[in-house]
Amino acid sequence: MLMNIMEGASLPPRLNTLHCGDCIAGLKQLGDGLVDLAFADPPFNIGYDYDVYHDKLESENYLAWSRDWTAEVVRVLKPNGTFWLAIGDEYAAELKIMLQRDHGLTCRSWVVWYYTFGVNCKAKFSRSHAHLFHMIKDPKNYTFNTEAIRVPSARQLVYGDRRANPKGRLPDDTWILRPQDLPNGFEPDQDTWYFPRVCGTFKERAGWHGCQMPEQLLGRIIRASSHEGDVVLDPFAGSGTTLAVAKKLGREYLGYELSEEYSEQINRRLKKIRAGDALDGAPEPLVSVPTTAQGITLAQRQGNHSPAKPHRKAKKPASRTKTKGKADAEPRLPGF
Q1: What is the pLDDT of residues 202-220, one digit of tens each?
Q2: How far is Cα 72 from Cα 32, in angstroms, rounded to an integer?
Q3: pTM (2 decimals)?
Q4: How far is CA 43 from CA 53, 54, 87, in A?
Q5: Can you name the residues that pair with 192 across neighbouring β-strands?
Q6: Are strands 77-87 and 129-136 parallel, antiparallel or unpaired?
Q7: Strands ordered across the beta sheet of 231-234
Q8: Which of 16, 183, 248, 260 has the greatest number of CB atoms lying within 10 Å of its CB?
C-alpha cells in the first residue's frame, strides 16, 4: 500500500505500508516506542545521482540532517528495539558517535560488509566494504536470535570434523583477493560478512535503483533482530529490499521513500511477494561460485580449453551434500 505523507497530520501507524514523502515528517506523525527493528541505508553524501534528492550537502548540513532523522528513528523504537545503520567510510565515525553520545544507543556490533563487484578505482585501493552498525537501546534487553542465523562452520564444510556443532556457528578488515579461495575465511562468528553486491547482471537486480541491497544480507539482520509479527521500519526504502524481506519473513513493515517513482516500483515489487517466499540470492555465497582454481581464463575460453585442475584435490567430507554446481541448486542453509 502506498500513502502520501500529510504535513502536520497525526495519524495512527498503518502497517505494511510504504509512505511517499520525507521520512522525518512521516516519523513525526508516529507515537513513541512502536517499532521493534529499524534498518536504514541513508544517502552517503557522496554525490550519488538520485532522482529527487541532492546527495552532496555541506558536511555540517548533512550531519544536522542525520541528527534529525536518527533522532526520530530512535524515538519510535521500542525500549528493547534495535537499529541497524548501513553507512560508508565518509561519515561512519561521525554517525556512530552521534548514535552513542547524542541518542544514548549502545553499539552491540560493528559489522563490516565485504562485497564483490565494487567500483574499480584508479588512484586508490578499490572500495569493497560498507559499515553496518548494530545499535540497541537497552544492552540488557534486546532481541538477538542466535538459532535463526547460524551457518555451517569450516569444521562442517571443509574438514568433516566430528567435533563440529551440527547446528553450525554464529555468523576484520581483511585484505583478500577472492573469498572463495579461503576455506577458513569469513567465519560465521566474525564481524566481517561477505555478500556480493547486486550487480546489473544478477537475476535479483530490480534494474531501477542503483543502490540495491542483497536480500540475504537483510535476511540475516531481520532474522537476528526481530521475531515474526514484529514491526520493521526502513526510513529510506530505496529499492524496497528491507520491506520485501520483512514481508517474506512474516514481519510487519513500515517504509518511507521520498521519490514517487521509486515508491511506485517498490509497491510493484511488494505485490509480487507472499509471506514465506524464499529470499533472492545465493543462501551461501562462498560456495555458490567457483574458486580461482576452478575458474577459466579468457585465453582458455577462446581456445576452448578446460580450466586447469588443481594438483591436489581436496577430499570431500562424507557428510557434505553433493550439489549441481549452480547457485539455485545449493541446499538451503540455516541463517540465510
Answers
A1: 454 455 445 678 898 899 8
A2: 9
A3: 0.74
A4: 9, 9, 8
A5: 112
A6: antiparallel
A7: 2-4, 17-20, 252-257, 231-234, 35-40, 77-87, 129-136, 106-114, 192-194
A8: 248
Rounded-to-integer distance, Cα 90 and Cα 57, Å: 13
Residue-level pLDDT at 296: 64
Please give the average per-residue pLDDT across 262-289, as a whole number: 84
47: buried, middle or exposed (CB in 10 Å: 19+, 13-18, 0-12)? exposed
- For residue 113, what is its C-alpha cell? 560488509
Q: Which helix (H) or strand (E) holds 269?
A: helix 260-271
The DSSP string of 225-262 is H--TT-EEEESS-TTSHHHHHHHHTT-EEEEEES-HHH
Task: Say if residues 192 and 172 touch (Cβ distance below 8 Å).
Answer: yes
Residue whose C-alpha cell reads 551461501 in the numeric block? 284
Could you tell me where the DSSP H helices lie in 142-185? 154
- State the CB neighbour count (10 A cutoff) for residue 73: 24
Express each pLDDT in 88-122 by its tens digit: 999 999 999 999 999 999 999 998 887 765 566 67
DSSP notation for 43-88: --SS--B-SS-B----HHHHHHHHHHHHHHHHHHEEEEEEEEEEE-
Strands 106-114 and 129-136: antiparallel
- For residues 146-161, one letter each, b for 16 or more C-beta atoms within 10 angstroms of the residue's C-beta and e for the rest, the string is eebbbbbbbbbbbbee
Are the C-beta atoms of 111 and 84 separated by less than 8 Å? Answer: no
Helix (H/G/I), strand (E/B), else coil: 297:
coil
At residue 47, does pLDDT exceed 70? yes
